[in-house]
Amino acid sequence: MAKSIVYFASARAKYFDYDYGFLGKFEEILNLINLNNFVAKGDYIPIKMHLGSQGAYRVVRPAFIRKLVDSLKNVGGEPFVTDTVRIPGLEYLRVASANGINELSTGVPVIMADGVFGRDSVMRPCGPILGEIGIASAIHDAPAMIVLSHCKGHIASGYGGAVKNLGMGGIAFKDRNGIHQRGRMHFLQNAELSWTAEKCSHCLQCVGACPHESITFDQNEWLVIDQQKCARCGRCARVCTEGALVLPQNAELFQKVLAEAAAAVLDTFPKGKVLYINFVTEVQPECDCMPMADAPLIPDIGVLVSDDIVAIEKATLDLIGQAQIIRDSKAGDKGLTSAENIFRKIHGKDPYLQVRAIAEFGLGSEDYEIVEVLCKPKPDGSIEPRNPFGH
Ligand code: SF4
Ligand code: SF4
Prior knowledge:
Elements lengths: L3 E7 L11 H11 L11 E5 L13 H13 L3 E6 L5 H10 L4 H4 L3 E3 L8 E5 L6 E5 H4 L4 E6 L1 E3 L3 E3 L1 H6 L14 H5 L7 E2 L9 H5 L5 E3 L5 E3 L9 H5 L5 E2 L4 H16 L7 E7 L21 E5 L2 H13 L8 H4 L8 H6 L4 H8 L8 E5 L19
Parallel strand pairs: 1-16, 2-3, 2-7, 3-4, 7-14
Antiparallel strand pairs: 1-15, 5-6, 8-9, 10-13, 11-12, 14-15
Helix pairs in contact: 1-2, 10-14, 11-14
The site of one iron/sulfur cluster has 13 residues, from helix 9.
């Protein structure tokens, strides 16, 4: 069986020349992959992203989004940038804009795929753990999609890339009956957060981390969660270093749930109508949904593009594992000297599990071939740089 092709452009620029720079090389990959295969004239195309958080600003840079948008428009597509409600919808759009992602910078609308209230969803059959899941309607109804992911670590799944972007981010906040859909994935089914008063230092980190202002302490210094407001996102438990607030989740199961949900989202698209773009830049240890961004663990690697979600995720993790670590980062704090299995060493979770889990749905191959793009050729086809370094 032929290997899956993964296009790659390094973030390095070896010449003072746009065509040899990261953006120029990304543009060339978009030229090479023939977007006509993914987009028919007039198609509305979601560009599924994570738009960051207040404090988590290491998102895919708008210059690259704009380049993608222009390429999609050139083949007749009608793209829009989108994610689902994690924090209240209008607030999320303001955060996205503050992180540089808005209509002015990208050239297209930035919208919530599940509506500003996060309830626009379509229930679809899912794998054996979830049974069924509510998919954001603007993704469910689209004829094709670009999954544009910023690759980084993740406290609950070890790594967040395309599987996470789709499996969590393609799912609506709630369904029309008000039942949590994303939230069902963070928690073991039907379980609740637990709090142990004796362990609580009242540091209030959980209060500050909660995006829905669901946590208060009563006059007896007892933690109270407003279940009406709580989105079951698990952020509060993740920042509790005392082990007082505990999220009922199993790390292995969580990765399987992500793969299940991602497969359910992909099942709404005809085969071959989803393109994956993984930016391996500013690879920080934590998800872009946290209330801060830490320093990157490794130097910027570049961008990968493929129509195979298994291949691109495996290639991304393999490349990260071969990088040098940045000592002044969480990797250095942990005493790591190499990036091999870096996310497992930092978060205690093996991220290859989610790759194997999505592969089990028959959605791609772990056998890949990297095709590196070194430059964007000149109009006459030449690839000679105009201003090589050192001249
Ligand atoms: S983060 Fe943990 S220790 Fe701090 S206030 Fe919340 S429950 Fe208590
Ligand atoms: S799970 Fe925790 S952080 Fe998330 S909304 Fe509920 S109380 Fe807030």
